[in-house]
User: What shape does this take?
Amino acid sequence: MTLPAIKIDNVQKHFGALHALKGIDLTVQQGEFFGLLGPNGAGKSTLINILAGLLRPTNGNAAIMGHDVVSDYQAARLVLGVVPQELVFDPFFNVREMLRFQAGYFGRGKENDAWVDEVIESLGLSDKAYTNMRKLSGGMKRRALIAQALAHKPPVIVLDEPTAGVDVELRQLMWSFIRKLNKQGHTIILTTHYLEEAEELCSRVAMMKQGEIVALDTTANLLSKFAAKNLSVQLKSGHLPSSLLPMLKHQEATVFTLALTELNQVEFALSELRKAGAEVEDIQINEADLEDVFLSLVGGA
Amino acid sequence: MSLINEQTRGVFTLFKKEVLRFWRVAFQTIASPVITALLYLLIFSHVLEGRVQIYDDVPYTAFLIPGLIMMSLLQNAFANSSSSLVQSKVMGNIVFILLTPLTYLQFFLAFLAAAILRGLVVGLSIYLVALFFVDMPVVHLSWVMTFAFLGSALLGTFGIIAGIWSDRFDQMAAFQNFVIVPLTFLSGVFYSIHSLPPVWQAISKFNPFFYMIDGFRYGFFGKGDISPWVSFAVVSTFLALLVVLSLKMLKSGYKLRG
Assistant: This one.
C-alpha cells in the first residue's frame, strides 16, 4: 500500500468567529488528477494554504506523502509545489535566476538546472528566461509563477486557480504540460472556477461549500448521479404544464430545459406536454456537465 | 567536505538572493549612503574644524569619521532587512520563501547575514573614501571590527522585527524616521556627550546607539567617553534581546503565517 499523496483528517480552521473549514476529511492518492471545486469563500484556498503551511489548522491534521504539515513541515514542503492564486513576483531578478533560487531554497543545486530548463521550455518561457520578472506580461508572469512551483520537481503539485484570466493558448499549453507531469506520476490538485476544465482534466473531484465537502466522487459518478441528461424542448404553442415545473432548469423564450435523473423521464415529459395540448417544435437530449452537478449541490441556498 | 550541501543550500541561497538584491542596486544601496556621509564630512569638518576639539591630539574631522561610518552602517543594516521584508510582503512574493522547507532560524540567519554584509560594505566604503581626506589611525582593530559587526547585527535584527511588524512602507519609514535617525543623531556621532549638559549626558546613556558609536570610536583612537567593555556589554545585551524577540516573532509565524 503506497502512501496517499494527501491525507486530511478533520481539518478545521477558525478565523475568530468565522469557521472557514468545518472539519474536512480528504484523501488523494498518488498519481491522481484531483479537482477541488466550490464558489468563492467555500474554503478551497484556506485548505490549500494549510497544506502549504501558510496557515495552521485550528484542529485536525494534514499530511503530504505521509509527512505532517505542522510537525514534519520540512519534509512535507519538500514534496509539495504550490502555484499561488495571486500573480506575485520578485522584481529584482530574471526568470531563470528566480527559478534557480527557488530550487536552491529546497536544497537543489546544479544537478537540478536541466530540470529548470525543461520547465522553462515546456511553459514557453525560453524567450523570456533572461527577462526581468517586472517586465513580463501578465500571461508570462503566470507561466513564471507555475514554473516557480515546479522548480524543485515536487511529486505533489497544487494549482490554486491557475487559469484565472489566462488566454486560451496559454491554458492549452499549461494543461498539456501538467497532463504530461501527471502521466509521469506527479499528483495534481487543482482548484478552479472553470467547471469544463475540471470535467476534462480531473478523474476525481470534491465540491466544497461553506467550509464543508458536499460531494466527493469520480467525475464520471458525479455526472451520472446528479443529473444524467438534460432534455430541451422548444414549444410551438401552449405552455409547460405545472407537473413539469419541478424538473425545469432554465427557460429561454420558448425553449425549456428539463433536468432528467433517468432517461425514461423523457416519456413522462412528452406525455405531460401532449396532455396539456402543447405543440413541440424541437427536442434535444444533452449529457449533463459538471456545472449541473455543481449547481444542484452548491447553487441551492 | 563542501560547506554547501543539501541541508545548508537553502539558507545559502536565501542569503545569496538577499545580497544580490542590494548589490544589483548598489548605486542606491551603497554609493548613495557613501555620498551622504561624505557631504556630512565636508560640511561639518569645514564649519567645525579648529573650533571644536574633543580629544587633545585628534582633529575634529578625524573624530567625526568613525561616527559617520557607524551611523551609515547602522542605517543601512536596518534598511536592508526591513525594506526587503516589507517589499516582499507588500508585493506578496514572500510566499515563495514561506513555501520552502527553510526553518525560521534559517530565515533569520539569511536576512541577518545579508544586512550585516550591507552595513559592513557601506562602512568600509566610507572609511576608504575618508582616507583621501584625513589620516585615520586604527589603534585597536579588534574593537573596530567587533563594534562594526555588533552594530550591523543589532540593526539588521531590528530591521527584521520592523519588517515583519510593518504592513506598509510608511510604517517601516516611521521606524526609520522616528527611531533610527533621532537615536543616531543624539548618540554622539557629531559630538562627545561630555560636551553636553549633565541632564542630556545622563539621558544619552539610555541610548543604545551611544554605546555602539563610542565603542567603535574607541577602536580608532584608543579613547572614548566610557570603557569599550561597558559598551560591549550593553550592545551585546541589546542584541541578545532583539534576537530573542525576532526569533519569537518568526517562530510563532507572527504576521507571516496565519
